[in-house]
């Protein structure tokens, strides 16, 4: 979709370099659709919203009463329908500039929404490629899956978010295809493993004090395994070991992340799914800078490391897990 939305932040403050800029999410983030003058000159652009003499047509649809005809015409053009066909919609503005590879050594990716499209891309491609050859599933004893959820950034509590029954329902339907055993789902869950992949905050050269001294995820150093004793991340010693073991075998770099004791810790869908489904989980993510800004930044190398790590994990987890002996 090529909808042209523009988000403007009004900055006219002489003290900004000393006092900083605090975004007011109500008044500073209003999307700009068109100027009133231009809209007046181009009434025919919104032909379906106006009558010949320029008055707004009487519409019974609620969308027509609530939204400007130019916006509705833009959306109708993109969707290939008439504006009056639109009954309602959800709309998000976003940066439409393509991602760029840059840096003196071409080592960085600048892109919108790296968090969490980067992990989504790497995991999906790894899954597809791990099953590409005719023999790739010959010795597989498990089911390889990728699950990509909506609404992680707003808490995952929605009908299709990680907090919904959708994961358990999917597992239930898949296991029911393998036989009549009424306990098959529970058995499958005990044998399963979840890699909760969400981007991680890399060490920033201007803010080195924001990271715990011995756990500073660095770009170009592979996926960071996230640990938190308060279970903001669902990693434990066993899941961390299994995930690292695959990396070690394939010479893929991997690192550990623990937040400073005096700082708040983010979270992921890892603990939500671990507690809701009862599945072993490791929380991991590729390091990046400028998370949640309109233009985020990560390292080219880490995309490759993430893909390689995920692919090897898909291919070898079942065999590795079968060999695991945990003495508690
Ligand atoms: Zn995020």
From TrEMBL:
GO BP annotation list: proteolysis
Molecular function, one GO term: metallopeptidase activity
Protein keywords: Aminopeptidase, Hydrolase, Metal-binding, Metalloprotease, Protease, Zinc
InterPro entries xref list: Peptidase_M18
Family: Belongs to the peptidase M18 family.
PANTHER family: ASPARTYL AMINOPEPTIDASE, ASPARTYL AMINOPEPTIDASE-RELATED
Annotated protein name in UniProt: Metalloprotease
Species of the source: Lithospermum erythrorhizon
